[in-house]
Amino acid sequence: MAQPSQDESMCELETQGLLSDAIILPKKPPRWKRAFWVFAAVATVEAIILVFLLLNKTHIHFPISIDLIETTFTPEPPSENVDSAEDVSKAWSVYTLPGFVTVDPAIYGLIPNNNVIQGQKNVYLLSAFHQLHCLKALQTMYTALRDGASSHTISTHDTEHMSHCVDYIRQGVECAGDMTLEHVYGDGRERTSTHICRSWTEIEQWQRDHSV
Question: Helices H, strands E: what count in the chain?
Answer without folding.
Answer: 8, 4
